[in-house]
Amino acid sequence: MKIEIRNLTKNYGATCALKDFTVTLRPGVYGLLGPNGAGKSTLMGLLTDTVKRETGKILCEGKDILELGAAFRAQVGYMPQQQGYYEEFTVGRYLFYMASLKGMNRKQAKAEILDLLEVVGLSHCLHKKMGGLSGGMRQRILLAQALLGDPKILLLDEPTAGLDPEERIRIRNHISAIAADKIILLATHVVSDVESIAEQVLLLRKGELIAADTPVALIEGVRPCVSEVLCTKAELEDYRQKYAISNISQVGGKLLLQLVGDDVPPSVTEQVRVSLDDVYLFHTRKGREEPDMVK
Fold it and tell me: What is d(CA 169, CA 160) in angstroms, rounded to the nearest whole number?
């Protein structure tokens, strides 16, 4: 399966939420990174046809998804950031309802629901009401409904929001395990969600795709722009004004700063550990003075 997104643009009034976005997606995990307002949710909306397209094309196996209509949507599992739900529905009833919307028969739905509740660690909640669940538990139920029907395309918008570290790891591991024959687009502003599982990272800033590559290649690309320096507490603010700071630790009464930016000073350590956090800070900091997006 292949999805081609060509020159996709979306405006909200005078604000450009997505500008000339072009990328080709094949089976694997794609991390869609960017700060709030970068255009991640707008892209998800365009891919699910819940946001009206203005210009550009989205092709699945060479055919526009608007022409494919229901045939395309049947292959998509979508987890939005937030979704309305009936508070009086039990978890089981809610998932059966979502399965019926996907055209699944009851026998198939029952087997998948029990398996997916095990995956997200909520087997004990089958008969609990949705309104009585915590935010993190509802988030996991949203992921379970997206996985119903074994979709070939998974669109996950902030799938680990509100989850504790153990839950985040569980969900990430499952996403990685099922990625071999699926296109998975995982939108987030939490770098750790994608660093270990994404084969490609797409970095958005103010609606534009500013970097797209493997995590390793992106990290190597910013390595010359990362260094560590020692400073006093009084000097800290000066460094904040000039560079992004990805880490601060105390060393012998001073502060060891990991700086990210153009023309960083020479590093006091020979080998600086560069991560996707540094990549994210390097690229997103460049647009900090520009007006923020709204979507």
Answer: 9
